Amino acid sequence: MGTARWLTPASGYLEGYTHTLNPYVGCSFGCSYCYVRRLPVGLFRSEPWGSWVDAKKAEPLKLMSELAKAKSKGSVAIFFSSATDPYQPIEVSAQVTRSLLEVMVDEPPDFVLLQTRSPLVVRDMDLLQQLKDRVRVSMTVETDREDVRRVLTPSAPPLAGRLNALRQLRDAGIDTQAAVSPILPHTPDFARLLSVTAPRVVVDDFFSGDGSGGRRSEVLGMRPIFEQNGWISWYDPSVIGRFVDSLRPYMPEAAIGVNAAGFAPPEYKVAYCPEDTEVALDPAETESEG
Ligand code: SF4
To answer: Does residue 270 lie within any of the structural domains?
Structure first.
């Protein structure tokens, strides 16, 4: 293991987060619309994005001191992960993400958003339960159409498994949200389906949600893919508004998030006490948006 750091100061699009945490470099899901493809990590390697993934070379226990140091300076809200999926297929054996969650149970951040599209997250339910309201699992469910997923994210886990994972986590008392990110062509039943699966839904799109006003999505070639598949009417900034409207009959307004603000942490007035990190949080003070 090397001396790499686990926590990276958050910047740019991630509203409300102090740090990002990426247990892997690369991502075997290789989504066609992944903006990381165009970042240095995706460009400066000879193999195509999606064909490689490496565990980050750092000792999981090093996260303990990084967390303690960050917490001594203020609140710590972690986006886990921003440039990979923390539940890569190799996580089954590598258990890097699980090791990092174990550290967090002992040295909890104020909030961690566990962003994934893999049902493997259910394996770590025991640790997520120990983190209580300091963790929210955000499961990407961009569509309810498997034919669409197979075209745009053929290496990502099937949708039924993700929906099932959301239900299992919710039923285990873990805070969850479905991340329709980016919104893709879907059936008329999609809003209802999500509303009975997760207590919260956050939506973004290829335009306001790509962090560049739609330029990243154009560079990634999303428009021709939508044209070739007969979906061009879905490649439009109006789609997100119509979908949010379709959620409203099923969910309270506070349970619907949009774009970067929708991914932001719930408000924590007093997230931890530097003198006594064991102090219990008052649920009324830490109630989530959902
Ligand atoms: S899972 Fe996330 S990081 Fe991985 S390829 Fe898809 S969008 Fe990119």
So the answer is: no
